[in-house]
Amino acid sequence: MDVSSKYFSVLSTPSPYIIKYVWRFLLDIHRVGKLRELISFVLWEINHRILVYHFGKQYVKFTDNLGFAIKNEGNSLSGDVITSSFLMEQGLCFQLVPVDWKYCVQTTDSVLWGCCYTNLKALYYSDDQSRSAVLVHEFAYPITSLFISQKNVLFVCSNGVVYKSDDRAMSFKVVLTLSSAISYFLFNNGMTELPDHTLMIGEYGSIWQGKTWQNLAFLYYSFDGGDTWSVADFLLRQGVNKHIHLVKYCTRLKAILLTDGDNKKQVWVNSALAHFNKHAGNQKDGWHLINKYHHQTGGYTSMAETKEAVLFGSDYLGGTNFIVKTSDGKQFEKLVLPDPYRRSPVMNMIAHQSTFGTEIWAASYSCLSGDAKSLLMCTNDSGKSWARVIEFDGTRHEVRLASSSNNPSSTPYISITEFGNQQDQHRHRVYKLDRDYEKVAQ
């Protein structure tokens, strides 16, 4: 809920009205549980304005050249290939594919499963690198997320219900009903699998009830491959008021990482891989809280890892956003996205194993203002430097990571949406990363 935008215009009104509206603004901030976040926003803004981050060299480092900028006129997306001289030097280009994936996951035998913009209720598969797709199952409601396990078992979320198929989508059974019809788990971030094949889901959704949020911050876990589930409510008991952003097993830290939203935006770690419903001071006894104060940042909606480090992306729409890096889960390096990207949350990250090593792709996005640019970016040195791959205006376009990093060797896919006046007028184009750039250049 953007409680601030309706108050900005009153700054030009007489002072008595300003005082009244500022007071109402603060009441709204308190009512939706964002007072801590507002204080952090102010602190980060001051640090940015008085150059504290500049002198401390605390900004994300970008390479000098911009790869590709999507123009608002739309003519920059007329071809089948997205590339540039700089991207070619980096070995990067994107090839348009006929299948308009919204979400897609790849099995170990290179089959893609996913849903498409043309029919969000339908599940498709492709075994020819997205040259075509076959409809295999249609749900009664749109697919909101999906996940594939290490054993190629498929999980699909639709209308607050999680379905399971272990026969390549020949049949589905209901295995879990979440606490609301609009609930789901965030694609690529809200469901994970542990080394012993325990499955975990973090519930996500936003429901305003009268004067408060409905609390959906439930963690679900299954020890039998997803047939039956238990529920943990330790976040509710700890005072979290909204939902779970991220739950992921981290190979480097050999631990589960969890982030919550919205009033606290905390970061949790569970190194025991057990005691899933217990808030504990010791990491070996359950969930251990990493960040003590909100201004330390938290509430990350994205995470990816390499052999050297774990990276997180922050979720502060309209404020200051960060990419946070740790190698041990104890010390965290916090880097600010520089303007004009600073106000765009890092919504998703995927890890991709290429001939260049482990790449991390990150997508930032803000729809509040055309001045706050959004960005698809990539790093192949664990976040020491980033290439700006595609820059765009989030009020006119959206660039999403359409694939997950559950299988890091799979090909990354991105979707580019050009907004129309109505939902059914939006134009969606999907591209896959094409390493055969010499052929494209010819």
UniProtKB/TrEMBL annotation:
Source organism superkingdom: Bacteria
Stated name of the protein: Exo-alpha-sialidase
Organism of provenance: Spirosoma flavum
